[in-house]
Design goal:
Layout (H helix, E strand, L loop, with lengths): L1 H10 L6 H12 L7 E4 L2 E8 L4 E9 L5 E8 L4 E5 L3 E2 L4 E8 L6 E11 L4 E11 L4 H8 L4 H8 L8 H8 L1 H4 L17 H10 E4 L2 E2 L11 H12 L4 H4 L2
Parallel strand pairs: 2-9
Antiparallel strand pairs: 1-3, 3-7, 4-6, 4-8, 5-7, 8-9, 10-11
Helix pairs in contact: 5-8, 7-8
């Protein structure tokens, strides 16, 4: 009996020291909680997409609440992004799919679009779609068929022009998508090294007679008032010549 008692006593684990117990509690507390409204994946990278083709991805919206939820708000970053869940009602512990599609017309290089989701309990989540727009030899036909003052392009790039006055801001919203973020050319020619302000102003105001470059002045149906026209032309004239910009 004595041997048995000693054997049992030797196998009895010692109580945790205060330091060990504290460490254990801290470890448990530091574990991150699962979001109640969970988007999977949080970031979806599509890689390269040809300009003019739709960038499409499917996310999972998971309900980790103890009760059913309803999706009450789906806000896309801009007009070129469409987002629609398969179901707005999600039972507890279940999920639905969120389909996101982005119109890449006249876009270039690295693009990131977000969709903000809110449920009936006030939980919020964000789905992010990333992709890189590459050159497409058929992009001109896509642009000509839509016109840049119509549809998604207008809501994203031209409606906001009403609230800006600086030349750089006007260019970023209304010109960069075709002429490049640094004016070195992309879908449309470079705008560096101009020496004729009057001629440049006339082209911007009246266009070149094609849907992809209409007149931007308000008098010709465009978004720019005379003050904005002057600010944009002055900013473009101050850009360095192409050979200097590449140094």
């Amino acid at each position: 009996m004595l041997v048995v008692a000693l054997f049992i006593g030797g196998c009895t684990p010692e109580a945790d020291s205060p330091q060990q117990a504290k460490h254990s509690v801290e470890t448990q507390v530091s574990l991150p909680a699962m979001p109640l409204l969970h988007i999977q994946p949080a970031i979806y990278d599509l890689g390269d997409i040809k300009e003019g083709e739709a960038a499409i991805a499917t996310f999972i919206i998971r309900n980790n609440n103890d009760e059913p939820i309803e999706i009450v708000d789906v806000q896309a970053a801009c007009g070129c992004t469409a987002a629609e869940p398969d179901s707005y009602l999600i039972p507890s512990g279940s999920f639905t799919q969120l389909k996101v599609a982005v119109d890449t017309t006249a876009k270039q290089q690295d693009i990131k679009k977000t969709v903000h989701i809110t449920d009936s309990l006030g939980n919020k989540a964000v789905a992010t779609l990333k992709f890189n727009v590459v050159d497409n030899p058929h992009a001109n036909k896509v642009m000509q068929s839509k016109g840049i003052f119509e549809g998604n392009c207008a809501s994203c790039h031209f409606e906001p022009l009403k609230s800006v006055s600086k030349g750089a801001d006007i260019y970023a919203l209304g010109c960069a998508m075709c002429h490049g973020v640094d004016a070195t050319g992309a879908y449309a020619p470079a705008l560096l090294g101009h020496t004729d302000a009057e001629g440049l102003s006339a082209i911007i105001a009246h266009g070149v007679g094609k849907p992809q470059m209409p007149g931007f002045a308000q008098e010709n149906g465009g978004p720019l008032n005379p003050e904005q026209m002057h600010a944009l032309v002055r900013w473009l004239m101050e850009l360095p010549a192409e050979k200097d910009a590449k140094d």
